[in-house]
Amino acid sequence: MILKQRIIGIPINGNGNNIYIGNMKKRSSKNKSSYKPDWTPENAGEEFAVRVVSGVKNSGLPAGKAGSSKKETDLKRKQISVDDYVDGVLKFDRNILAQAITLIESNNPTHHNTAQEVLKKLLPHSGKSLRIGITGVPGAGKSTLIESLGMYLIKQGHKVAVLTVDPSSTVTKGSILGDKTRMENLSKEKNCFIRPSPSGGTLGGVTRKSRETITICEAAGFDVILIETVGVGQSEVTVRSMVDFFLLVLIAGGGDELQGIKRGIMELTDAILINKADGDNEKKANITKSDYSNALHYLQPATKGWTAQAFTGSAKTGKGIPELWDVIKEFEKIIKLSGVFEHRRKDQTIAWVLRMVEDTLHDKFYNDEKVQKAITTIKNEIAKDKITPTLAAEKLLTIFKTK
Ligand SMILES: Nc1nc2c(ncn2[C@@H]2O[C@H](COP(=O)(O)OP(=O)(O)OP(=O)(O)O)[C@@H](O)[C@H]2O)c(=O)[nH]1
Ligand SMILES: [Mg+2]
Fold it and tell me: What is the domain extent for residue 325?
């Protein structure tokens, strides 16, 4: 019996070449490298052979016979220019919008300049949205609320962009898969755009990408940006620093773990929504609302001229959603009139710029080989009490500054 074996290669190297895993013997043929697995019979023919298919450079894609012509041309065609990106985004071309965001999220240094060019041209068209951050304990119903509020807004003629900020997110982008199912109706709307958190990287990296994504979405014409924080910790503070209105979603009751999130985060919030106020839960939710309303009285307002309040609602039934939007609109009106809105945005941008400088300096310092060596030496000197902490710091900085 002749066993025909066809091995399908998976492109796993940067050049797009297909790599086959397993023991294979190389057989030369005219122009191509042909391989046969070790277990092939002595006089077996080409039916057992596999070939290494040359790929499209840096694409991660195999080219194959046809690829070297058509697929490669397709890929080249996809390398769109700065003006193509800009025009596409301004014309609300969702495909180009997604590609522009992918460009700014790219960690490939060769994409950096193009991305910054695109952003520079889009910047004058941005800034005209209301940016709303939504935080809260895991499972409080943030995504369900975004679905509910988002649908309500779309019906009113708004264009809604939804982003998540998750510094811990890895390549799998697991959370958004769940979110897309939570936001089932919203994700089908043409006036809605849902984008998961850029994966991996430092909080600084995720922050930069998210802020730049906001710029692009605003330039595309989205007038409400909803940003969900994922994970508990630093992301709340980060999201607060990029939004106008910050909403805390909580549920009735809650033990000590709720108290933990409450103290720090409550000082950042402009409103609290006690969610899941439906069915048997409604009464409990009202009591919790009163508790939080009292607690809010003793806190400094997160936004000058605005008193944060607690509300009840149900993301599931939609109860309380129009009222929540009314509160947000009222907030916008008041702080735009007082100038706090504009002031905060400028402050946020300046803080962002300085933060980027700090991050860059931090990375440069710790990646400097001379500094790395000096740190090892200084650790020894400190262990032996040979140097004071101040002199040690000065020495490291001098080493860093002298090139
Ligand atoms: N009864 C009721 N259930 C709700 C409501 N809102 C959300 N849920 C349910 O609560 C669960 C969690 O909802 P999500 O919207 O995923 O909550 P989340 O805060 O986004 O969760 P994470 O992103 O995992 O932190 C889901 O099973 C929802 O169906 C509500 O208003 N009432
Ligand atoms: Mg969620």
Answer: 128-347
